[in-house]
Design goal:
- By secondary structure, this protein is of the alpha+beta class.
- Helix content is 46%, strand content 14%.
- The chain is built from 10 helices and 10 strands.
- The strands form 2 sheets. Strands 1, 2, 4, 5, 6, 7, 8 and 9 form an 8-stranded antiparallel beta sheet that branches.
- A hairpin with a 5-residue loop joins strand 7 and strand 8.
- Helix 6 packs across helix 10 and helix 9 packs antiparallel against helix 10.
């Protein structure tokens, strides 16, 4: 750790954060993946170990990093546990004290911990939306130089950036009201409020063996086939899809505004899970497991058609309803095939 308290410079030691990225993930998985890689863990093995469907009506927020989380028995939601229930990953949101907005950031960097910060792309010079479109996003802060007036930022999302940003620009982005923007109906109108996400991996992950992965897959199948009080599994998807179509037929544009950020979380998780199964199937010479991975990846790709059809139908949800119906049916079929394929692989492991 490089710390010069006289010059008020705080920098993460060693190599700069890994720019961890996959085509179908959002900044949420990307930034957490970078933190996991820095902790010596394989991001794909942690973030790709679980697969589920969960929809919480009324919970969806207009942020790229939205992900549904059920509260535990004490009413606490843990984003890390929701993303990686098979690992000791924990994540909590926090905001800096008003008297010194940099204090917690300095403490984290001095402790050699990356900081995940929520930002508004409108104010970041390296983002394509700079000065044009308001949108909620996540970046990694890995250095602070108050003498030179810059924040060192890492962002794996295309076009990918790692470098210094003027403190004034970063503060505007970090504290933005992120007002409603007609150019981005899905990630604007959600106050940033200088939020940060503290991510910790309590214990190093165990080696991923066929037996351990088999346990994960059986949990997948149970989650998709067992009834719960929440909108989970295939039954939960059916409730979600029926409500989405009813709202579209009722000309409710809010249904399509929610579909895009909600669907991204479900899509990203399916993409990572499918990639992990396919990778393990190749390494372990298990074609059934590899085929299950491809089936789960098909779910991820089916989400693309639904999300983008919803985005293009925002101006006229009633007219978009027939196409939405076609895509929800296709996605439902992909889910059913993938659950069966995962179940077949689980029996073998």
């Amino acid at each position: 750790m490089t710390v010069d308290t006289t010059a008020r410079t705080y920098m993460i030691t060693g190599p700069e954060p890994e720019l961890w990225y996959r085509d179908l993930i959002s900044c949420l998985q990307s930034t957490i993946g970078s933190v996991l890689a820095r902790a010596g863990a394989d991001p794909l093995a942690v973030l790709g170990a679980s697969w589920r469907f969960l929809h919480l009506p009324g919970d969806v927020r207009s942020e790229e990093f939205y992900y549904p989380c059920l509260a535990d028995g004490s009413g606490v939601t843990d984003l890390g546990a929701a993303l990686a229930p098979h690992h000791e990953l924990h994540a909590r949101w926090w905001q800096p004290a008003d008297d010194d907005v940099w204090r917690e950031v300095r403490e984290s960097l001095a402790d050699d911990r990356l900081v995940i910060a929520a930002v508004d792309n409108f104010h970041l010079p390296f983002r394509p939306a700079y000065g044009d479109v308001h949108a909620a996003h996540l970046v990694i802060v890995h250095g602070l130089d108050e003498t030179r007036g810059v924040v060192h930022v890492s962002d794996a999302m295309p076009p990918a950036f790692r470098g210094a940003v003027p403190i004034e620009d970063f503060l505007r982005s970090w504290g933005s009201a992120n007002p409603s923007d007609v150019q981005d109906a899905f990630f604007s109108d959600s106050r940033i409020g200088r939020r940060c996400l503290d991510v910790r991996l309590d214990t190093p992950p165990e080696a991923l063996t066929p037996e351990r992965l088999g346990e994960f897959l059986r949990t997948d199948v149970d989650g998709f086939t067992m009834a719960t009080s929440a909108r989970t599994g295939l039954a939960g998807y059916d409730e979600f899809a029926a409500e989405l179509l009813d709202r579209c037929r009722g000309a409710d544009a809010g249904a399509l505004r929610e579909l895009y950020p909600f669907g991204w979380g479900m899509q990203a998780q399916a993409a990572l899970h499918g990639e992990l199964l396919r990778r393990c199937g190749g390494r372990w010479d298990d074609p059934v497991l590899a085929a299950a991975g491809r089936a789960v990846e098909s779910v991820a790709h089916a989400w693309t058609g639904l999300r983008f059809t919803g985005a293009h139908g925002l101006a006229d949800p009633r007219a978009a309803a027939p196409d939405i119906a076609r895509h929800v049916t296709r996605l439902r079929g992909a889910y059913a095939l993938a659950v069966d394929a995962v179940g077949a692989a689980a029996v073998r492991l």
